Amino acid sequence: MCWPYFDVQRAAVRDPALQGMFLHDNDNSRAAAQCRQGVPGGGTAPLLAFLNTSGGAWWVDHVAAELASEDAPDAFFFDETDWCACGYSFEKDGCAHISDAFRAADLSAKLPALRGTADTLNAARKWPIFSSKNILAAAWEGLPADARRPCVVPHDAYAAALEGADYGRFYEFWGGMGKDLDAASIRNVMLEGARGVGFLARASADKSAQCPTACDGSPYFPVDLTYALAAFLVARTSPWSYFGVSGGWSSGCWCWHAEYDAAAACGAPLAAAVRTSPYSWTRSYEHCDVAVNTSAGAGTLTPK
Questions:
Q1: How many other C-beta atoms lie within 10 A of the C-beta of residue 87?
Q2: Rg (CA), the chain
Q3: In this structure, what DSSP letter does residue 24 have?
Q4: How many degrees, rounded to 5, is the angle at CA 108 between CA 103 and CA 111?
Q5: Cβ–Cβ contacts within 10 Å for residue 267, how many?
Q6: How many CA atoms lie within 13 A of 227 on its CB side?
Q7: For residues 114 and 108, what is the distance between their CA atoms, to the nearest angstrom?
Q8: Measured between alpha carbons, how far is 88 from 47 in angstroms, rounded to an integer?
Q9: Measured between alpha carbons, how far is 136 from 141 in angstroms, rounded to an integer?
Q10: What letter would DSSP give residue 283?
């Protein structure tokens, strides 16, 4: 997404010569209205299109390069990097006629920009964190053929485009998405972890895991904390693995929970997870045994 927060982005938004790289309705027909998304504080900003435009190259040459030149940050977070192909509705942006075929093709055209972003930041010893909703095709093996897929294309081309790059994958909603998608997500983490992809999971807090401080909103897809934490401990294979639970996004939504202490007490994993059914796994740690069942939406950490 193109938000005009950086000077280079504002300049592009205001440059008549660059308007062709922004998304228009009717599968980016230049004769149609430009898609414009609301931004915090008021106003709107156009969305980048990647298919048959110069948007990807511009992004790498200007935005990624600007980020790489920053001294302080060691990592940068990129939100919803495949949302166009994963169910996003453009209607509120004035674009009601974006087809699935265009969404799939536009994501494919975007992949060189994602790789270029990773390479540019890696060269500056920085880590991109890409938020994604998608799942590898192999992660669905063993699940029903009619299980709901989150996107119009599998995650395979996306993962292949980033093969060998150093980056982290962020799951905005870890758990609470239904037994099939939860199970596929666990398997997906294992597959990506074997490729060296970092794993960052954020679970949406249910009532029992709300913080006592003020939070900026109600949680979407609330999930039991122990279940989400057990799924995380079962799935993680990368040494770069992080977990958190929150009801929203402001600082007041994040607090420490006793369940974190129980997870820390488990120590290190002794072996890979064992899949005991299409929806369940177990895993042995130094000081506890972990089990998760996505069909029941339940998980346990049992001290040894």
A1: 12
A2: 20
A3: B
A4: 125
A5: 12
A6: 26
A7: 10
A8: 12
A9: 10
A10: E
Paired strand residues for 288: 303
CA separation, residue 171 to residues 6, 59, 183, 286 (Å): 26, 23, 13, 26
End-to-end CA distance of the chain: 47
C-beta atoms surrounding 156 within 10 Å: 14
Nearest 5°: phi and psi at 70?
-70, 135
Coil, strand or helix at 151: coil
Q: 166 Cβ partners below 8 Å, 6+ apart?
A: 118, 122, 127, 196
Place of tokens 């799935």: 235
- Cα 92 to chain centroid distance, Å, stands at 22
Q: Which two tokens stand for residue 187?
A: 């398997």
Cα of 123 vs its chain's centroid, Å: 23
Tokens of 94: 């004035």
pTM of the model: 0.93
| Angle between helix 225-235 and 258-265 (nearest 10) | 30
Given a cut of 90, whether residue 51 has pLDDT beyond it is yes
Q: Pairing between strand 241-246 and 198-204?
A: parallel
pLDDT digits (tens, 9 = 90+) for 182-199: 999 999 999 999 999 999
Task: Please say whether the beta carbons of 201 and 174 come within 8 A.
Answer: yes
Cβ–Cβ under 8 Å, residues 183 and 294: yes
Calpha distance 37→91 (Å, rounded): 10
Contact 23, 95 (CB under 8 A): yes
pLDDT class for 2, splitting at 50, 70, 90? very low
Locate 49 and state its tokens: 């299109």
Cα angle: 237, vertex 179, 154; to 5 degrees? 65
